Amino acid sequence: MEQQDIILSVKDLNVKFNLRGKVLNAIRGVSLDVYKGESLCIVGESGCGKSVLNKNFIGLLDKNGWVDSGSIMYYGMEQPTDLAHMKKDKDWLKIRGEEICMILQDPMTSLNPLKTIGKQIAEAVELHQHLHGAALKQKVIQILADVGIPEPEKRYKQFPHEFSGGMRQRVVIAIAIACNPKILICDEPTTALDVTIQAQILDLIKELKVKYGLTIIFITHDLGVVANVADRIAVMYAGDIVEIGMVNEVFYDPKHPYTWALLSSLPQLGVKGQELYSIKGTPPNLFKKVEGDAFAPRNPQALKIDFVELPPYFEVTPTHKARTWLLDPRAPKVNPPEHFKNIRSIRKLRQQGGAANGQ
Amino acid sequence: MVKYMSKRLLRSLVTVFIIVSTVFILMRQLPLDGFLPNVDKMSQEQIKNSLALLGLDKPIHVQLGNFWKQLILHGDLGTSYVYRNNVATMKVLSTKIPLSVKLGTMAILLGLLLGLPLGILMAKHKNKFPDHLGTVFIVFIEAVPAAVYYLFIQLYGTELFGLSLLFREGDWRTWILPVFSLSLPDIIYFAMWIRRYTVDESTKDYVQLARIKGMSEQKILYRHVFRNAFVPMVQYLPSSFLNTVVGSIYIESLYAVPGMGGLLIDVVKKQDNNMVQAIVMLFSIVGIIGLVLGDLMMVLLDPRISFVTKGGRR
Amino acid sequence: MPLFKSPKLVKLEENMQDQLREHMTDEEAFSLAKFDEKEVERVGYSNYSYWRSTFQVFRKNKIASFLVYLVLAILLFTFVQPYLPNQRDPFIANNDTVSGKPLRNIQPGEKGFIFGTNSIGQDLWSRLWAATRTSLIIAISVAAIEALVGILAGVLWGYVKACDLIFTELYNILDNIPSSLVLILVSYMLTPGIGTIIFAMSITRWIGMARFIRNQIVIIRDREYNLASRCLGTGTFTIIFRNLLPYLVSVIMLRVALAIPEAIGSEVFITYIGLGLPATTPSLGNLINLGRQLMLSPNLRYQLIYPTVILSIVTIAFYVVGNAFSDAADPKNHR
Question: Which of A2, A32, A248, B168 could staple A10 via S-S, CB 3.0–4.6 A?
Fold first, then answer.
């Protein structure tokens, strides 16, 4: 892909937090390019830094956090802008909603319980599409229909508590769409929903992406969702991206031991009667400086050098790279774990959509 | 909602009944001085007759029954024998109530007028100078007993502003100190709670979403945070009402206001049981009505409570 | 095997890392490392201790920390004062040694009276400390009774289902009755005295404490982390100690700390109405009430100022310390 197609480019980003007097290095030198019109999924365990990374894209990092170094170049506007160094609220108002919008995880708390949902969507439309009065109402009703809410005229006047969880998330999506952004960040939008509703919401997002020409960044820890929605996957661990590539490449030809471990943890790969695979240990303490590969202590296939020096990215294909010494020509040939052969059966996952517990 | 409110009302009525009856019964355990002003000068015979006249010789439950009958059918809260000679308590009260109501209402209005903006200012500048200043103010009024700062106000009010200590209904200048003193606890109360609610709301998820939408902080504050913070505030109006009622007991005697509060102190000093009984009952009823009203207002303002949602989902 | 690595060990390991890098050949570097499962399961961090964090946060609040010392100093002084040299008896009317006349309304500082004398000639300094003693004893007693009765009732209320209904109805009724009125009523009915005041104040306060305790017990008892503890087989005593108690303690401390200024306030209130302690017993309420009558004469004003200042300091101190401690005990503030 050519340079022009990149809409967001993160380079060597370091984000730190002040916690109880100590400094936590939450994002450790992340570099990531997002291409226009793609669906990029960022996967990782809880606490790996996925949400923190995305908060930087809309300037909503917690008060005790800051960007220590690196840049986030946004190419969606006339002038490329470095989001990492934007401090003023005034500047962020031009980005938030207008260019980049986000959907939060919990639809229950994302909506103001004391305002009608029509009003809440209208606020977004007013801000970004500059409509008023009757035209405004029309637009809102149209958006409601777009996200699949039946009887939009009636629903316009209703309050959030009159909607079910899935419907509420549709409303939240409606608000995001109403902003007319270029990039839509979905922070685990289906985690709080029933399994059956999950598929619907994911389909809706895919539909809207095509209809409105959005670029989507999806954050999730659910690989089933990834299989359903993603064009590309970035695997995050301990504040760093360890592997990134097209969906097929990462699923069928993963190279980083952490990706192996992650994929192995899928219950679908379990064999009846045997213990389910789980990754031993816990993620590292990011208050301390990490030497070498962060995953090394938990990696049965770790090389001695993994404990000592941070591996660079090795290219597997032009679109697939991973940060592991195993890809170095000097490394011994290491095979992915046994149970991995079953991963081909994961094809079913892609066909069935985001049902993480599907058969 | 109807079910909820009727349950609430019923409970309040029961509470009123219990309080009033308890006060009634308790009063009748007290020495007879409270009913017969000259009991130490009377002979046994005279006492017996007087008691019979007043209906005080009957068994307690009969007395109670009669009392309620009198109250509900005739609006008669008993008769004053010591404070006034044989005058219906209602009559005595009715001359005093209007003034106290005026005073109290003005105090609450002033409380809202000054308290709400103060609290909002404090929330807006959380942890900065206005917040700290306001906090000092609040701590002082909260911690130090009202009796004490009322005195300070009276002291410096007269010294610095030359305002009179004696209240006269016609002279508006004599209203200033009493109303202001009375409103202070309300100012603090409202400021404190609106600040807390405002701060609470600011951390809610939907405020975050509003930010993501691209709303300016100013707009968010007014359209989402304050609007939402005001709703639970409503339930504090009646409590402040009650506080004002109690506060008036002080203020009225400090400034010689001929209202209900001052009356209470007088009748306590004079030991008129029926008057004390009547005032205590009245205050309690007012308080309870206030609390029920507060609940009612909450129900009306919060759409979540008003509607019966499907399957009880909130 | 210890759960945490000591800093010395970590330093040693870091040094080893550096040495490794310099001396490893490519062949060595790219060989498989030994995978130690036990090593992996070692917990990385968290030397978090609830109480230590609580005190840390509290100490950061300079004002509250200062006031704690102030309060302790005042408390100490109040009870030690009579035993200091050259203290006068608060009840004796002092007469002029020469003329034999009572030394009325002496200005503070004159004739060896630190705070002056009142209209009968009693030493205001010793009277004030006696008054503070009385008021504090009342306040502390009320707080103690509220805590004891309230906690007991609250625990019963929370754990015994049968009690729940009775107590809840009782609470709903009592909550609606303004406490000042109960105070007035009780004081009106019983003989005014220290016992009466303590009794009257305790009646109105205990149920509030009980309700707090009961709510916490009900919430915490059924909260997931307690269920989890029970599933893991933790004993009931341990659950109470480590799960319930820390949160309860902060709530209890707050109520106890706030009970003090409120009790003092109630005492002043009831004295004002005429139902307080007998005028001969020195209490802050009495002193203030007497001083009030002298408010308008600038040179007698000191009889009002000194009691009110001491009262203000005490009440503000307890209020601030109570709130600060409660804030510090909230784990959300342990950042």
Answer: A32
Q: Is C28 on the interface with A (CB under 8 A)?
A: yes
3-state DSSP helix/strand/coil % of chain C, to nearest 5: 70, 0, 25
**Which amino acid would we find at residue A97?**
G
Q: Model confidence over C37-48: pLDDT tens digits?
A: 666 666 555 667
Residue closest to B213 by CA, chosen among A217, A119, A146: A119
pLDDT for residue C44: 52
In chain A, residues with a C-beta closer than 8 Å to the C-beta of B204 are 109
What is the nearest CA distance from A60 to chain B, expressed in angstroms?
Answer: 8
Dig out the tokens for A5 from the structure: 């197609």
Residue A217 has pLDDT above 90, yes or no: yes
N-term to C-term CA, chain C = 29
Please state whether beta strands A81-82 and A65-74 pair in parallel, antiparallel, or not at all (unpaired).
antiparallel
Give the mean model confidence (pLDDT) for residues B99-116: 88
pLDDT tens readout for residues A45-89: 877 888 899 889 988 888 888 898 999 999 888 888 888 888 888
For position C259, what pLDDT does the model report? 87
Interface probe, candidates C62, C176, C327, chain B, greatest B C-beta count within 10 A: C176
Give the C-alpha separation, B167 to B99, whole Å. Answer: 11
Q: CA torsion sign, B266 to B268 to B271 to B277?
A: positive
Instruction: Please give the model's pTM, rounded to 2 decimal places.
Output: 0.73
pLDDT above 50 (res C208): yes
Tokens linked to A295: 């995953």
Residues B26, C190 contacting (CB under 8 angstroms): no
Does the structure show a pLDDT above 60 at A359? Answer: no
Q: Inspect the interface and report whether the beta carbons of B280 and C177 lie closer than 8 Å.
A: no
**Contact check, Cβ <8 Å, A285/C40:** no
> ipTM, 2 decimals?
0.79
Give the burial class of B111: count Cβ atoms within 10 A of its Cβ; 0-12 exposed, 13-18 middle, 19 or more buried.
buried
The whole-number pLDDT of residue A355 equals 44
Instruction: Give kind and range of the element (H or E) at residue B124.
Output: helix B89-124
User: What type of residue is C188?
Assistant: Y
H-state helical runs in chain B: 2-27, 44-54, 60-69, 89-124, 129-143, 146-161, 173-202, 205-213, 217-220, 227-233, 236-254, 260-270, 273-301, 303-306
Structure tokens at B132: 């700290």
Torsion angle of C-alpha atoms A78, A79, A82, A83, degrees rounded to 10: -30
Separation of alpha carbons A13 and A56, rounded Å: 10
Interface probe for A, chosen from B199, B201, B206, B224 (most Cβ of A below 10 Å), is B206
Reported in sequence order, the residue ranges of C72-166 that DSSP labels E, i.e. its strands, are: none
Give the span between the Cα atoms of C101 and B68, in whole angstroms: 60
Q: Is B174 helix (H, G, I), strand (E, B) or coil?
A: helix
pLDDT tens profile A296-341 = 888 888 888 888 888 889 998 999 999 988 888 888 887 777 666 6
Q: What are the φ/ψ torsions at residue A186 (nearest 5 degrees)?
A: -110, 110
AA identity, residue B79? T
| Helix/strand/coil for A30 | strand
**Bridge partners, B79 (sequence order):** B88
Within a 10 A sphere around the Cβ of A174, how many other Cβ atoms? 26
Would you state the structure tokens that stand for residue C123, as one six-digit string? 């030493």
Q: How far is B187 from chain A (nearest CA, A)?
A: 26
Subunits next to C (3 or more Cβ pairs <8 Å) are A, B
Strands, sheet with A320-322, edge to edge from the N-terminal-most edge strand: A100-103, A183-187, A215-220, A39-43, A232-237, A240-246, A320-322, A314-317
- Does residue C200 sit in helix, strand or coil? helix
Which residues, listed in sequence order, are joined to residue A65 by a DSSP beta bridge?
A: A17
Q: Report the alpha-carbon angle C334-C66-C332, nearest 5.
A: 10
Q: In whole angstroms, how far apart are CA C304 and each of B35, C70, C118, C307? A: 37, 22, 10, 6
Record: contact A302-C33, CB cut-off 8 A: yes
Q: Is A292 left (phi over 0), alpha (psi -120 to 50) or beta?
A: left
